[in-house]
UniProtKB/TrEMBL annotation:
Protein name stated in the entry: GntR family transcriptional regulator
Keyword presence, Iron: no
Source species, domain of life: Bacteria
Keywords linked to the UniProt accession: DNA-binding, Transcription, Transcription regulation
Alphabetized Pfam families for the sequence: FCD, GntR
Domain HTH gntR-type: 31-101
PROSITE patterns xref list: HTH_GNTR
InterPro entries: GntR_C (IPR011711), TF_FadR/GntR_C (IPR008920), Tscrpt_reg_HTH_GntR (IPR000524), WH-like_DNA-bd_sf (IPR036388), WH_DNA-bd_sf (IPR036390)
SMART domains: FCD (SM00895), HTH_GNTR (SM00345)
Transmembrane segments: none
Native source organism of the sequence: Streptomyces hyaluromycini
Nucleus as UniProt keyword: no
Length: 252
């Protein structure tokens, strides 16, 4: 997943990860970076992925995970507080939290995501094909150092304290598997599809992300064992579940 992840991944320029200028993201490319943050957090609340009273991560972590600037995140969170989706609390246990009785369906920008069901399913299928091939190739090509690096990212995701921290590590993990093939062309092609799909990811409960990390762990074990068929099958199941777990499946 979101998915997802410790060192931190380098921050992406605003809009780079979201690929908002891609012609294949017609439904959301007209949205500003501010609108995309508002829509993704509001949708996570509407779908129950973020629970009433749940504290959001720090703005810098959200900014890194969603590929936008911190100022954009601050503005988005402030506006969602005004809308009644979030609330701010002061004091030691304060911060920005999901409102106890959040207003739902108030962010118009979310409709741009709702209309992209076919596009998201297509991207999931494209990623499935690429990820299975990458897992198969990485089985024989991954160096011990590369495998050790994957283990470190799995451990970082085990320690992640928020969906934002997990998501940043998750992206690094999947790109690292692609790099382990030694084929630059595969990294470029896969990276493009991955980031287009990440443009649609929402915050997810950490418990669900932990389960996806078990699949990361199993994939690394298969790579170490030289079991290409098992590695490809783990990769397939890991991605295909997105048809059910991303918002396009949860809205049904």
């Amino acid at each position: 997943m979101t998915g997802t992840p410790n060192g931190s991944a380098p921050a992406h320029p605003e809009g780079t990860v979201l690929a908002l200028n891609s012609p294949k993201l017609n439904g959301i490319r007209r949205l500003t970076a501010l609108d995309t943050v508002r829509a993704r957090i509001a949708m996570a609340v509407d779908l129950g992925l973020l629970s009433p009273g749940e504290r959001l991560p720090q703005t810098d972590a959200i900014a890194e995970a969603l590929g936008v600037g911190e100022i954009t995140v601050r503005r988005a969170l402030s506006s969602l507080c005004t809308d009644g989706v979030l609330e701010r609390r002061r004091g030691r246990n304060g911060g920005t939290l999901v409102a106890e009785q959040p207003t739902r369906g108030v962010v118009d920008a979310a409709e741009a995501y709702h209309g992209q069901t076919a596009e998201v399913h297509r991207l999931i299928d494209e990623r499935t094909v690429l990820e299975c091939g990458i897992a198969h190739l990485a089985t024989g090509a991954a160096s011990p150092a590369a495998l050790d690096g994957l283990d470190l990212l799995v451990a970082a995701m085990d320690r992640a304290e928020s969906w934002a921290e997990f998501h940043s590590c998750d992206e690094r993990f999947h790109l690292a598997v692609a790099h382990a093939t030694g084929l630059d062309a595969s990294v470029q092609t896969y990276g493009t599809v991955l980031r287009r799909l990440y443009a649609y990811y929402l915050p997810y409960p950490l418990a669900a992300l932990r389960e996806s990390n078990d699949e990361h762990r199993a994939l690394v074990a298969a790579l170490r064992a030289g079991d290409a068929a098992r590695a490809a099958d783990i990769a397939r199941r890991h991605v295909e579940t997105l048809h059910r777990t991303m918002f396009v499946g949860l809205m049904r």
